[in-house]
Amino acid sequence: MSGGLRERLGRLRGVSPAEGTPEADIGTANMESVADRGGADASMEGPDVSEVGAETIPEGFRQLGIDSERTEFGSFLLRKIRYPYPYRHGTYDLSELSSLTGYLSPVAHRQNKETETGQPLDVSRLLFLDTETTGLGVGAGNVPFMIGFGYCEDDAFVVEQALIRHPGEEKAMLAYLLDKMGGRSHLVTYNGRTFDWPVLVNRFILNGWRKNGAEPAHLDFLHPSRALWRNTLASCRLATVEVERLGFVREDDVPGSLAPALYFRYLSDGDPEHLRGVFLHNEKDILTLASLCVHFGVLLSERDMESHANEAGSEELYRTACWLELHGKADVAERLFARLAEREDAGDGGWGLALAARYKKAGRHGLALPLWKQAADRAEHSAAPKLEAHLELAIYYEHRDKQPGVAVRYAENALELVHRRAKLGTNAAKMREEKEAWQRRLARLREKAARLSDREKE
């Protein structure tokens, strides 16, 4: 922990930097068994401020439903909110989690490199997790001052948010999290596998816990979000995804990037109002994770696939089909690919050529051919043309359809496009190499077409 942060935290709890909390012996973090061990030491406890009772909690916290919570390592602040079913967060009703979570098993198996015969996902064993930290890195100096997590009960979705008021409360908060993780199989996060979880692991280590057993499995929704939307959304940030794909718009939201600064303000003057927006932002993040769980479950369940196929743009539909195929839904993926091949914009973007390449690899050249032709036609009317389709067509008509005369036409058109691209100031050496390659191909094709013409005359 940096000296500046330690000093600010120390001022809030009434100790000088010289009296700061000593470091615990570093072991290896264990996420399953530490809660049962009772902890390795109490070196991070600090002064116990919880003894003064609940009435010391500022009114600003109480208005948010925040109270103190105690573990064997001390106290911290805790907020708990229940959302009785039915509860809709954007497009989706969170009561659907119980019926749709099982469809996400292939995603979890793939992310955790498990066999497809692994245990299916059980919604009661998922813990939705999001942290607010003092920095952006995953090093030991980055402290999670707030940990939000959600879980399903029979009649409600529950969000809990833990907050530390000084370093001495961190171990108590971590112990509470470990208790909540008991019996859970997966952490559901958004980039949590590479950020939230490594940060927490570092804090467990620095608080003296040691590894004893396997770490929890992950269900990280950043990866499927990128797989589907990296080419269609402005970004795959959670705030963008929830607006564009989950139908949820936050009002007066405090961006997560401001959370560290707001926490430091709270440390400076103890005013809970600085953290009101951070609590609400973190709460919405947890609810959005649950809504994403429903969204991807709907896709894998094949529910509403017809309406999705009609409404989704071609690029997104192609990415969705690829993602479904990757997770064992080859039949529905094939239906989506067939729908795509019929669209008028099949030659646009990279997905049309990618789909044609799939058909070519499968030996289904008849399905690839119209996609190449559409792409070639659009390239010839483009200010910055691409030549992949012309190359595929030249190869197809030379070697498979045995019509070198048609291949000549596509090669001639491609050579004209090369000249057009050269005028755009593209890399001269690369353009010269590409021009020479097409000239060699065209010369060979013309010679082959001439020989075929002579044979036909005989």
UniProtKB/TrEMBL annotation:
InterPro entries per UniProt: RNaseH-like_sf (IPR012337), RNaseH_sf (IPR036397), YprB_RNase_H-like_dom (IPR038720)
Region Disordered, residue ranges: 1-29
Keywords associated with the record: Coiled coil
Record's compositionally biased regions (Basic and acidic residues): 1-10
Domain of life (superkingdom): Bacteria
Transmembrane segments: none
Start and end residues of each YprB ribonuclease H-like domain: 127-295
Keyword set includes Coiled coil: yes
Gene3D superfamilies recorded: Ribonuclease H-like superfamily/Ribonuclease H
Entry keyword Coiled coil: yes
Coiled-coil positions: 421-455
SUPFAM superfamilies from the UniProt entry: Ribonuclease H-like
PANTHER family: EXONUCLEASE-LIKE PROTEIN, YPRB RIBONUCLEASE H-LIKE DOMAIN-CONTAINING PROTEIN
Protein name: Ribonuclease H-like domain-containing protein
